[in-house]
Amino acid sequence: MHPNLFYMAKLLIIDDERGIRNTLREILADEGHEVDVAENGKQGLEMAQAKAYDLIFSDIKMPEMDGLEFLAKLKNDENDANDANGECPVVMISGHGDVETAVQALKMGAYDFLLKPLDLNRILITTKNALESKTLKQETKQLRKKVVAKGATMVGESAAIMRVRDIINKVAPTEARVLITGQNGTGKEVIAHLIHENSARANGPMVEVNCAAIPSELIESELFGHMKGSFTGAVKDRAGKFEQADGGTLFLDEIGDMSLAAQTKVLRALQESEITRVGSDKAIKVNVRVLAATNKDLAKEIAEGNFREDLFHRLNVIPIHVPALNDRIEDIPLLVAHFAEQICGEQGIAVKTFDAGAIKALQDKQWTGNIRQLRNVVERLIILAGSKITAEDVEAYA
User: Which of 86, 110, 140 represents a domain boundary (last residue)?
Assistant: First the structure.
């Protein structure tokens, strides 16, 4: 990613020590960033509610409102005037005696923490990584919005993909649970959307959970919700993904990375069609169809004690295995044409064509990243090559 993306970021520094504030402001302003400062969490929260920031540094020990309370309000208050900051990365600043508190901050959603005395290189590296992470998340979110807005599409006419399409057509109108397996980048999420969009639940919510992206300590709260005060940072009652998906579909992506403790609770939810929020003893009935996906060999995970066999059988009512792109190279011409039209439309340019030599060169490549990698290569060729893309272009840029 080009470094210019990070030069004019809007940063906020919250620290009650003037020396720390000034040092951080000077370091980051010298890198070309726009830097605001606040003396405590209360002032920082007011500034964050009034202005969108790309990155926030916050001390933990401060008067009036400490860093943890600031973080909790920033991440949880849906009524903030500027709720975009709910997804803003926050880097906590910790004294030597505050390591445990800093770890708690990470569980609450902080991006990272820096120990005092501050190290120049660590500050710069953390800033670069946090800004890059935020940019990637925003790009991914926008791409997903475009995909969902247009409706999920599975492109291909190979025998392998036609078998998958046939299973989708048969299973979508039912209430059966589906376990989607396949390598990363093969399109497992697209298949989940197709099942939902062609089901009786299509007008209900489609809620996605990436089990690999949520820390094991927070997965239960994410799935089942929590009550105010049930743990540090739980400043209000919050519904989990099961409740949010009530009447619709819950897609548990990367289920093979879910902790055993969370697996046990998911199994109970599937058996009894009810969940219990963290910190509550009240059962809540939910009407949810569960789809799951993984790139792992769950039989192997079961043998090694990492996945519950009873949960596997609950999820694996209808198995769908998505073929790797290397096993369906006859679909590459259709996929290239589809991506070219999609990408050129997004760029606002005339659709570029790929000649027979370019298609053959793409079919001869090894696609370890599958369809996701192919789309990236097509986008690169459209940006860097001429109006008609040739085998020479593929050799130069793919």
Answer: 140
Is there a domain that residue 374 lies in? yes
For 232-286, what is each residue's pLDDT tens digit? Answer: 777 788 889 999 999 999 999 999 999 998 999 999 999 999 999 989 989 999 9
Residues 275, 334: one domain? no
pLDDT, position 229: 85
- pTM, whole model, 2 decimals? 0.63
CATH code for position 371: 1.10.8.60
Residue 362 lies in a domain: yes
Q: What is the pLDDT of residue 139?
A: 67
Give the 3-state secondary structure of the chain. Answer: CCHHHHCCCEEEEECCCHHHHHHHHHHHHHCCCEEEEECCHHHHHHHHHHCCCCEEEEECCCCCCCHHHHHHHHHHCCCCCCHHHHHCCEEEEECHHHHHHHHHHHHCCCCEEEECCCCHHHHHHHHHHHHHHHHHHHHHHHHHHHHHHHCCCCCCCCHHHHHHHHHHHHHCCCCCCEEEECCCCCCHHHHHHHHHHCCCCCCCCEEEEEHHHCCCCCHHHHHHCECCCCCCCCCCCECCHHHHCCCCEEEEECHHHCCHHHHHHHHHHHHHCEEECECCCCEEECCCEEEEEECCCHHHHHHCCCCCHHHHHHHCCEEEECCCHHHCHHHHHHHHHHHHHHHHHHHCCCCCEECHHHHHHHHHCCCCCHHHHHHHHHHHHHHHCCCEECHHHHHHHC
More confident: 166 or 228: 166
